[in-house]
Specification:
Elements: H1 2-8, E1 23-27, E2 30-33, E3 39-41, H2 43-54, H3 59-66, H4 70-79, H5 107-121
Antiparallel strand pairs: 1-2, 2-3
The structure holds zinc ion (2 copies).
Amino acid sequence: MESIEKLLEPSRPKLCDSCLGRMIYISDGAYRCEVCGRVALDDLGKVKRYLDKNGVAPISEIAEATKVSQELIELSYIDGKLEIPAEKIASKCVRCGKGLRSGRFCQDCRIELANKLKALYGKDV
Ligand SMILES: [Zn+2]
Ligand SMILES: [Zn+2]
């Protein structure tokens, strides 16, 4: 999905904040300065760290806490860039926090997301 890359691109650290060295991608949205070793995260990296620390939370809460756009988080879930570790799935919708029996999104969110995607890509997904 191209548009995730587009949404992520502005948040990717290119140059180190402290020494202006080149930032090299390590993994999971983390980058390390090749000169001083300083580590920085892109938006997806911030969301991953947040989930690692806090467990699954509604997307609106994650967006609020990480200052990452809800759209990026939603698309990352759909695209599989964000995976919830099995032990952390609290049988709640990852978007609104409503209780669920299975899956990641409740029915309402599923419909809303499908409509959003349709608007973004101009087709059914
Ligand atoms: Zn540096
Ligand atoms: Zn929901």
